[in-house]
Amino acid sequence: FHAQCSQHPQSPRMELCHVPAGREKGWYLALMAPNVKGPNYAWLDPSRLYLHPQGFQDCVADLLQPFQGDAIDTVAGIDAMGFILGAAAAATLRKGFLAIRKAGHLCVQTVAQPYSDYSGREKVMEVRTDAISPGLRVLLVDQWVETGGTMRAAIELVERLGGVVAAPLCVPKGVAAICIENSEGGKWIQERYKCSHCVPPRLQPRFDQHQ
C-alpha cells in the first residue's frame, strides 16, 4: 500500500492507486492509519481507508452483504464518523439516511438518550421524533463498536420511537460497523441483533487487544 503512484512518483501523499489482485474480505483494513497522538485518541484512524476508492467501495459492500434480501426501510448513521459509512450504505441500497446526532445540534423536536462512549465520557444522543414511525425497519451504522455504549444508545432511541432494529420472530435487521469488538457491550449487541463487520476471525483477537 505504500508504493508511490506511477503518475506522481515524487509525491509524499498516501497510496491511493494500488488494489491487490486477490481482494479477500478485509483487505482494505491495512489502509487504516495507526494512532500517533497517544491514549486520548482512538487506536486506529479509518479515514485513510475512505480515501481509497476501491477500498471504500469494498468495505461498504462487505458490510451490506449479510443484509442482502432483508427488508430495510432506512439507514441511520451515528454522529459523527458513522455518517460516512451510513450515507454510503444508504446510497448503495437506494434508501433514505437518518443522522443520529450528539445533543444540541438539531433545531427540531427530538428524543434524547444518555450514554457513555468508548472513552468513558458521559454524553447525550438525540434523534428527531418525526423520522421514525412505528415498524420502520432500520439498519444502524457506525464506524466502530468498542464498548458498545454508543450503539446501544442509538438502538434505544430507534426502539423507543417504535422503529425496528430486530424484527419479530427474532429475525434481526441490523447493526453494521467496520469492527465490533468482543467487549461486554459488543457481545451484548451481537447476541441480540444481526451484525455485520469487516474484521476476519483470524484478526479479531488483535483488534480486540488494539494491536
From TrEMBL:
Under the heading CDD domains, the entry gives: PRTases_typeI
Q: Which family does it belong to?
A: Belongs to the purine/pyrimidine phosphoribosyltransferase family.
Checking Gene3D superfamilies in the record gives: 3.40.50.2020
Gene this chain is encoded by = Apt1
Q: What is this protein called?
A: adenine phosphoribosyltransferase
Q: Which GO terms describe its biological process?
A: purine ribonucleoside salvage
Q: Where in the cell is it found?
A: Cytoplasm
Q: Which positions fall inside the Phosphoribosyltransferase domain?
A: 69-162
Enzyme class, one word? transferase
Q: Which SUPFAM superfamilies does the UniProt record give?
A: PRTase-like
Report the EC number(s), separated by commas if there are several: 2.4.2.7
Q: GO CC terms on record? A: cytoplasm
InterPro entries for this protein = Adenine_PRTase, PRTase-like, PRTase_dom
Quaternary organization: Homodimer.
So, what pathway does this thing act in?
A: Purine metabolism; AMP biosynthesis via salvage pathway; AMP from adenine: step 1/1
Catalytic activity from the UniProt record: AMP + diphosphate = 5-phospho-alpha-D-ribose 1-diphosphate + adenine
Which Pfam families would you find in this protein's record?
Answer: Pribosyltran
Q: Which organism is it from?
A: Malurus elegans
Q: From the UniProt record, which GO molecular function terms apply?
A: adenine phosphoribosyltransferase activity
Q: Which UniProt keywords apply?
A: Cytoplasm, Glycosyltransferase, Purine salvage, Transferase
